Amino acid sequence: MQVIIADSAQEVARLGADQLSRLLRTTPEAVLGLATGNTPIALYEELIRRYRQGELSFARAQSFNLDEYVGLAPEHPQSYRYFMNRYLFSQIDIPLARTWVPDGMADPASAGEVYESLIEAAGGIDLQVLGIGRNGHIGFNEPSSSLGSRTRIKTLAPQTLADNSRFFAVDEFQPSLAITMGIGTILRSRKALLLATGDAKADAVHAMVEGPVTASCPASALQLHPCAVVIVDRAAGARLQHGEYYQRVRQQTDQLSSRD
Ligand code: PGA
Fold first, then answer.
1. Which atom of ligand 1 is nearest to the CA of 133?
2. Nearest atom (ligand 1) to Cα of 139
């Protein structure tokens, strides 16, 4: 794992955007794995800014989102399809028909397999963007998820329901099921890019990076990913025991890459 401790949430977004920009420059037809939540909003804002300045284009790319609520139609304001259209797709040049979000209204028995086939037909995911839940989840792979799991229906954990209840009105239906890429799906991406900001994530980030690989912290499975980059701000990285070492690795990596 490459661990980068950035000075601020803005720097997390900038460094994350650098990863996507580099990929899109070398591989314009890249297959992007995208995420919803508060954390990636700043990343998407930065990507939109770069797109508007003519620095990058998504015209030949395609994307697969991690997850969607079961029972919410795409036009529902709390659906993740709606989120993606609002915060990213409507503001860049990616063809909407080449953006995929799991179908929350599809037959639960087959929806996961259908999504896996779509990813496979696209040639697999080049770069998967991830956030992390306070309970260590990635996508909606809650603690105890199989580390080999593929896209399927999951029951949301109480902590996740509580964390996300702020998005739903008091008397509004809040789904307790989601369809999510599995941990095995995420591990098959060619690169994983996890972003975390704020002190509420400090324990989960510590467990992910420095704890054992365990289904109790699904994000710890990224220790098994051949190319995982974790970018956190100081608050989210506050519990890391080896912060100085990660800083040194970063400096040396920067020096090596500036040589060519
Ligand atoms: P957040 O969600 O970015 O809204 O904190 C992250 C997650 O639950 O994966």
1. 8
2. 9
Question: What is the position in ligand 1's atom list of the atom closest to the CA of 138?
Answer: 9
Per-residue model confidence as pLDDT tens digits over 187-244: 999 999 999 999 999 999 999 999 999 999 999 999 999 999 999 999 999 999 999 9
Helix (H) or strand (E) holding 143: none
CATH dotted code for 2-257: 3.40.50.1360
Catalytic member of 67, 116, 126, 233: 67
Residue from 163, 167, 183, 233 to probe ligand 1 pocket by mutation (most atoms less than 8 Å from CB): 163
CA 62 – CA 59 distance, rounded (Å) = 8
Is 67 catalytic? The answer is yes
Contact by Cβ (8 Å): 150, 185: yes
Q: Is 29 a catalytic residue?
A: no
Q: Which among 213, 200, 209, 211 is positioned nearest to 249, based on CA atoms?
A: 209
Q: Tell me if residue 141 is catalytic.
A: no
| CA gap 244, 251 in Å, rounded | 11
Pocket of ligand 1 (CB under 6 A): 37-39, 131-133
User: Computed from CA positions of residues 249, 55, 20, 69, in that sequence, does the dihedral angle turn out positive or negative?
Assistant: positive
**Tens of pLDDT, residues 19-71:** 999 999 999 999 999 999 999 999 999 999 999 999 999 999 999 999 999 99
Domain boundaries, the chain: 2-257
